[in-house]
Structures are given as C-alpha cells and as structure tokens.
C-alpha cells in the first residue's frame, strides 16, 4: 500500500505493533472520503489489516476520485458502484452490496462516518451479520426529521457498538436517547484532515491565481441539501441572498456547485446572474478557497465545521444545524433561505474572527483506533 506521499511523510511513518483485528472502512460520498482519510492514514501508520469499501454513492471525478488523489489515499479494495437513485433503491443496493463484501471479508469492526445513505445501510448490514459497528461523528442532531440525514444518523447511532462523538454536546444528545455504552468523545476527524492538508494546500494549490481572486475579497458559497435545493422557493431565495450579500459587501460570490444543485437550477430555470459558478473543486483547492474567503455562505455540514476551524466567518443557509458548537463560539449564524435574512446575517458576520475551534485537537483518528483496538 502506498504510504510514501507528502501527507504520509508528514505523519512520521513509524513501525507500530500489528493488531490481529481486521477493520472495514466504509465510505461513499465526498465528505466521507475527506473525513475518513485521516483514519485510513492512521491504519496505514499502524500497519493494520484493513480494507476500504466504497459504495459508489458519489462517482463523478469531482465528487470522488479527486479526493483520493488530493489526499493520497490508496484505491478502495471494493467499489459497489451503486450510483444515484431514490432513497429506497440506493439504500437497498448498499445494504445488499455491503453485506456480500462483509461476508467475504469478515472484518471484526466496520467503521462508518457521518449521516449519508451509505452510513445507515452499511451499519445495518454489518450489525445484522454480528459485526461490530463504529460510528464516526456520532450524536449529531438537527432535531429535524424531514432531513434524510437525521434519520440516517439516528439509526446509525442506535445500532452502533462504538460511538465516536466529536464533542461533549454530541455525547449528551446520545445520553438523552439512552445511549451511554461505547461512547468516546474524540473530536471530529475533519480537524485531523484540515491540519494534515492545510499547509500542503497553501503550498500546492494555485486556485486563487487561477481564478484571479484576492484574499478576503470574495464570498465562497455552497449549497446542496435536498430540503434546500430541491425546493424552488428556497433555492431561488438562497441564490438571491448570495447575490445581495455580494453586492452589499462588495465581494464577488464564488459558487462551486454540487451536481444536485446544478440539476435543480436547470430544472427550475433559475438565473445565476451576478454569481460566479464553477465545478466542485478538490479538497486542497477548496481548503485554499475557504482559508482566503472573506465570508462563507453554505448549507453544508462539513463546510460549517471547516470555516470554524479555519477562523473564517460563516452564514448557514438553513433553519437549524446539528453543529450548534459553531454558533456558540461565534463562528456561524443561521439565516435560512430568505434573501433579506441572508443579507443581514452576512453583514453581521463579515469581519468576525477570534474564536476557539470546538471540534478537537486533530487526534480524533488516533483516538478512534485506540478505542477499537
Ligand atoms: C449526499 C448525502 C448528503 C451529503 C451529500 C454530500 C444522502 C441521503 N445524502 O447527498 O447527506 O451531504 O451527499 O455531498 O445520503 N450526482 C452526480 N455525481 C455524483 C453524485 C451525485 O452527478 O458523483 C448527482 C446525481 O444527479 C444525483 C444527485 O447528484 O441524483 C444527488 O446525489 P445523492 O448521492 O443522491 O445525494 P447528494 O445530494 O449528493
Ligand atoms: N468540498 C470540496 N470541494 C467543493 C465543495 C466542498 O472539497 O467544491 C469539501 C469540503 O471541504 C468539505 C466537504 O466537501 O470537507 C463537505 O461536503 P458536502 O458539503 O458535500 O457534504 P456535507 O458535509 O454537508 O455532508
């Protein structure tokens, strides 16, 4: 397995005592690849017996392979290539596909990360085979069951044996639902990922030059949540809010657009005048865009966390968040999808700085492996 790249060298490859356990690492979408990367790295460092199972929920180059390249990850041993589909079809394919791989590979523990259909289905197939499940990023709650992610994370938490909660607040949410055994507060692996890649991004990414952007002179925007972009009124409102914020703050709005959103903008025939839309970019370029942005507008979970970790103010284009820590430290504000609210929040947040990162010290992946070994 290749472990000699820049990130590998940075992690001081040292011989570790081999463990007898076999670990299955499941991922399927962009944020799972990014947030599992430090766990894969730590498995390599410890010379562990592990395999990576990619469900193929995300498959376009810019949503999948670019992250394996940027993060110098070994290719997945298994790819189910489930692709896109309705919840039932996608979840069903992941359920049967992961079951087959788990029956062949017989891991002792399966790790899943986050709240996607990949997570819920893989956790379910593993637990039904009597394989222990570890949920990375356990205990997040938006208390909004209309979000598919809320259903996925509740189910995953309730069938997991190891629950890796990023913060004490997540531990409390789990306790409120009666889950107290196997809970470890580790921080979020996104901190590990950002720490491991930030300097490399600063050295290697040329994205600001390529796009002709000046630091602190633009707003970085993303939006992809189904409850936002599949709703014409909300999507139109968010785009209008981005436009207003850009005009008022005198900043260009750069919007690397998720494929779901591209589809909806076309379907609803919405105007993107005044917004600079680009294809989604790789992790190093995105980190560089985030680190240099004057303000971030987003409905993404991972982007809320990264903005907070990098010290960049964020306005969240949602009515709720399962990352309340970002609001409590003053790094983030909820604005929903109405243009006027987005504008007010953007004006209130622009220029804010100086909070503590609540998501840990960048050792989450180590703590996770210590706990399961
Ligand atoms: C999924 C997750 C969401 C997560 C997001 C991360 C679920 C229910 N949703 O949402 O929680 O925040 O990933 O980005 O698990 N498409 C492509 N190429 C791809 C992938 C998707 O073109 O590589 C397009 C397809 O038209 C597809 C649409 O995007 O129908 C949505 O993809 P899907 O995986 O269903 O959900 P996401 O919106 O990506
Ligand atoms: N991201 C990226 N390129 C982009 C947009 C986002 O690399 O063009 C990364 C970002 O750094 C974060 C992750 O994608 O780590 C967030 O994924 P997404 O917003 O798709 O999902 P969520 O976190 O909301 O589940």
Give a short overview.
The protein has 373 residues and is of the alpha/beta class. Helices cover 47% and strands 14% of the residues.
Characterization of this structure:
The strands form two sheets. The chain has a seven-stranded parallel beta sheet with strand order 3-2-1-4-5-6-7, with helices on both faces. A six-stranded parallel beta sheet has the order 10-9-8-11-12-13, sandwiched between helices. It is built from 17 helices and 13 strands. The protein has two domains: 6-185, Rossmann fold; 199-349, Rossmann fold (3-Layer(aba) Sandwich), CATH 3.40.50.2000. Strand 11, helix 14 and strand 12 form a beta-alpha-beta unit. It is α/β, with parallel strands linked by helices and 373 residues long. The mean pLDDT is 95. It is globular and about 60 Å long. It has helices at 6-10, 30-45, 65-70, 87-105, 117-128, 148-159, 168-176, 189-204, 207-211, 226-229, 232-249, 259-268, 283-292, 301-310, 324-328, 339-349, 364-372, and strands at residues 22-27, 49-54, 78-79, 109-113, 132-136, 162-165, 183-185, 218-222, 252-256, 276-278, 295-298, 314-316, 332-334. Helix 4 (87-105) packs across helix 5 (117-128) and helix 8 crosses helix 13 (283-292). Bound molecules: uridine-diphosphate-N-acetylglucosamine and uridine-5'-diphosphate. Uridine-5'-diphosphate (UDP) binds next to helix 2, helix 13 and helix 14.
């Amino acid at each position: 397995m290749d472990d000699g790249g820049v990130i590998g060298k940075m992690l001081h490859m040292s011989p570790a005592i081999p463990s007898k356990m076999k670990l299955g690492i499941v991922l399927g979408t962009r944020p799972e690849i990014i947030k599992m990367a430090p766990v894969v790295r730590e498995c390599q460092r410890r010379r562990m017996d592990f395999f990576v199972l990619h469900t193929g929920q995300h498959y376009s180059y810019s949503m999948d392979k670019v992250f394996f390249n940027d993060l110098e990850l070994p290719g997945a041993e298994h790819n189910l290539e489930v692709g896109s589909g309705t919840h039932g079809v996608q979840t069903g394919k992941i359920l049967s596909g992961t079951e087959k791989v788990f029956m062949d590979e017989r891991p002792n523990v399966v790790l899943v990360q986050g709240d996607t259909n990949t997570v819920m289905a893989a956790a379910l197939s593993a637990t039904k085979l009597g394989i222990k499940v570890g949920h990375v990023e356990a205990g997040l709650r938006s208390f909004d069951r209309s979000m598919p992610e809320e259903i996925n994370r509740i189910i995953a938490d309730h069938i997991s044996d190891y629950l890796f909660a990023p913060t004490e607040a997540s531990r409390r949410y789990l306790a409120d639902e009666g889950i107290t055994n196997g809970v470890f507060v580790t921080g979020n692996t996104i901190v590990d990922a950002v720490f491991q890649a930030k300097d490399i991004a600063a050295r290697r990414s040329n994205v600001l030059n390529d796009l002709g952007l000046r630091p602190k002179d633009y707003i970085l925007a993303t939006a992809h949540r189904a409850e936002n972009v599949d709703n014409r009124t909300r999507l139109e409102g968010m785009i209008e809010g981005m436009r207003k914020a850009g005009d008022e703050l005198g900043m260009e709005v750069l919007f690397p657009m998720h494929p779901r959103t591209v589809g909806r903008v076309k379907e609803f025939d919405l105007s993107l005048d005044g917004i600079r839309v680009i294809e989604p970019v790789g992790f190093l370029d995105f980190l560089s865009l985030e680190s240099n942005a004057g303000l971030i507008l987003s409905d993404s979970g991972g982007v809320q966390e990264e903005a907070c970790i990098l010290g960049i103010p964020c306005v969240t284009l949602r009515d709720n968040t399962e990352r309340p820590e970002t609001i409590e430290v003053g790094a983030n504000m909820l604005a929903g999808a109405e243009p006027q609210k987005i504008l007010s929040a953007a004006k209130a947040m622009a220029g804010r700085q100086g909070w503590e990162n609540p998501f840990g010290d960048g050792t989450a992946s180590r703590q996770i492996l210590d706990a399961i070994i």
